[in-house]
Protein 1
Amino acid sequence: MNTATLLSLAAYFALMIGIGLYAWRKSTSDSAGYLLAGRNLPPSVAALSAGASDMSGWLLLGLPGALYLSGLSAVWIGIGLFVGAAANWILVAPRLRAQTEAYGNALTIPQFLANRFPDQGVNLRVISAIVIVVFFTVYTAAGLVGGGKLFETAFAGVLPETGLSDYAMGIVITAGIVLAYTMVGGFLAVSLTDFVQGIIMVLALIIMPLVVMFGGDGGGSSFDAVPVDGFLSLTEGVTLLGFISAVTWGLGYFGQPHIIVRFMAIDTVEKVARARTIGLTWMAVALIGAVGVGICGRAYTLANGIVVDDAETIFIVLAELLFHPAITGFLYAALLAAIMSTISSQLLVSSSSLTEDFYRLFLRKEAGETEAVNVGRVCVALVAVAAMVLASNPESQVLGLVANAWAGFGAAFGPLIILALMWRGMTGAGAVAGLVTGALVTGAWIALGLNADMGGGEGLYEIVPGFAAAWIAIVLVSKMTEGAEPFTGAPE
C-alpha cells in the first residue's frame, strides 16, 4: 500500500469528521435540528444527499459486479431504479414536504403516519419503528460488508496486527468513522457528508471507465477480448420473471425512509423541483458510470488475463491496476463514500425511530430536547453494533443483502406512503393492514425461497408480491372501515 494512497484516505476521513464537528456546532441543540436539520437543507444538498444515501456500496460493488458477470442485461435494475426515483421525486417529494409539516411538524415517518391517522397512531408508530429498525440493521450490515471487502482486498497485509482479519478490521474502521460524525453532528452532518460523498462518487464513476477505454495498457482495444455473443445484449438470458424482478426495484423508492426523509428537510416546497432536477441528473450519470465500470472491467481483465475471484471487487481491482497511488486513494475514498453515506443515513433514521417512537412515546414522555438528542446518539451506536454482528460473515453478498432490505421497506412503506399522501379514503386501520401485510409477505417470500436470486435465479423479486399485497390490504381494509377521520392534508 503506497503512502500516497494512505494519505488520500486519511484526508477523506479527516474531512468527514471535520464536517461532523461543524454540524455539531450548527444544529444539534434540539430534536428538530439533530433529526431533520431544522428543515433548512438547500436543494443541492438535499438532492445529492438523497442520491448518495440511496446508492450505497452496491453502486460501486454490487451493480458493476452483476454487469461484470452477466453483461449488459443486468442494466435493467438501474433502469428500473431511475424510473422509480423520478416517480418518487414527482409524486412523493412535494406532498411529503408539505404534509409532514402540516401534520404536527412530524420529524419522522412514523410520527407523520401517527399524526395522519390518530385513531391508530400508537400502533403505526410502534409497528413502523420495528420495521425500520429491523430492515435498516440488515441494510446497514450490507454497507459494512462493502467496507470489509474493500479492506480485505486493498489493504491485505497493511493493517496492524490486532487478532482480527482484514475483513473484520474493515468493518470496525468503516463503522467507527461513520459513528464519529453521525453521533456528533446528526442529520446536518449526514447530509453535508452525503453531498461531498456524492460528488466524489460520481467523479470516480466518470473517471474509471474513461481510463479503461482511452488509457494505456490495452485501452479501448480491450473490448476485442469481450465474449460478444450476448454479453452486450440487453435481452440475452433475460426471462420474463427476471425482467420483472429487475425493473421493479424502482417500486422500492416510495418506501425508503432514509431517502424520503430528505424530502422532509428541503427548506421550502417550491425548491423541490430544483432538487429533483439535480438529483436525477446525478443519478443518471452515476448509473451510467457504474455500468461502464462493470462492462469495461470485464473487457480489461479478459484482455490482460487477470483473474477476478469476486466480481463485486472489480472497482477495487481496476483502482489498483490503472491509477497513480494518490488517485487510487481517491477511488477508495469514493467507494467508502458510497458505503458511508448510506450507513450514516440508515443509522440516523433507525435512531430517530427508537428515540421518538419508543423512548419518548413509552419510557420518558417528558424527556427534554438535550436528553432526546443524547438518547439518539446512544441508539445510533446500538444499531451499528447489531449491524456489525450481522456483517461478520465475509461470504455475504452486498447486492443480495441490499435486495432483501430494499424490498422490505418498499413493500411495507411504499403503498402506505403513496396512499396516505394521495387518497382521501384511506383509514388508520387500512394503514396498519398495509404496513403489516407488506412486511410479512416480503419476509415470507424470502423465507420460502420464492424470491429471485440476484445472481440469476428464476424466482420473483419479493417486492412484487409484497407491494401488491400491501396495496390491496390498504384499499380493502379502508373500504371496510369507512367513516374514520377525513383526509385533511396540506395543499399540494
Protein 2
Amino acid sequence: MKKVLVVGSLNMDFAVYMDRRPQAGETVMAQSMKLVPGGKGANQAYALGKLGARTAMIGAVGTDTFGEQMLANLESVSVDTAGVKKITGAETGKAFIEIDSSGQNSISVIAGANAAVDETLVQGQEKLFAKADAVVMQLEIPVPSVLAAAKLAKKHGKLVVLDPAPARADLPDELWAHVDITKPNETELALLTGLPTGTADEAVTAAKFLLSKGVKNVLVTLGGEGTLLVGAGQVERIPAYQVKAVDTTAAGDCFLAAFVSYFTGSNFAEAIDFGAKAASIAVTRQGAQTSIPTKEEVEKFC
C-alpha cells in the first residue's frame, strides 16, 4: 500500500447553498448552510485515506471545537494526525463558500492556525518524510514552509506533488525545481506563468514554461474538457466524464488524491483517469470531505 504525506491546510468550511451568488452590493437569499471539514490539505489527506492509501498529515489547528472536529474526521479514515500541531490561542482555519445551483463556488479563506505551519514545524517532522513514498503540498500554508517540505522530500528521494492553489505569481524558482508533478487548472496556470491559457495550445505553452523552471510533469485540469498531461517530449489529453454537478467544492482535491493513490511512477493516463472518475463522483455530492468517494465506488464508476 502506498504511503503518502500531506503537508498543508485544515479549514472548517461554512458552505452556503443558493440559486445564484450575489453581485457587488446585492443580497441574495440562500437555501441552507452546512459546516463541513475542509481545507485543501485536509481534503487531500482525507481523500487519500478514504481511497486506501496509508496517509499522514502535517499542519496546524487551533485549540477549539473546529480543530477537534477536523482531526476526528481525518482519523475516521485512518489518517495519522500526529504531525498536526494544536496552536494554543489560535483559531482553526475557516473557509466561507458560496455554492450556486450549477455547483460552481466562490471561496474566501481565513488562515487562522494554518499561518503557524512554519519551517520549524515542518522540519521537526522529518521522520514522516522518511517514511513516505510521496509528499503532497498546496499553497494555503506559508510558501517558505512549502519549500522546506519540498526540500525534505527530495532529501529523502520522495515523489513531490504540488497543487499550486491558491495560485500566485511569485513562487520561487527553487520550489519549482523540486516538483515532480504539479496540477493547476487553466486559470491557476495563467496566474502562475503570466501567460494566456484560453486554448489548449496556449495551455500547453504555459505548461512548458513550468517545465523550463524544473518541474518534471504538469497536469492541467480543464473541467469538462479533461486533463492535459505535459511532460518532457509528451503532450496528451485525457478526457473527462460528463456528470451533473451539484457542488464542485474539493473536486480538484479529490482528483489529485485519487491520482496520487493510483500512480505507480509511470502510469500517468490510467492514474489521471482514476482521478477523473473520483472527481466526477465528488461533484455530484455536497460538501468537501463529505463528497469524497471510496475506492470501490471509483472502481465501479462507468
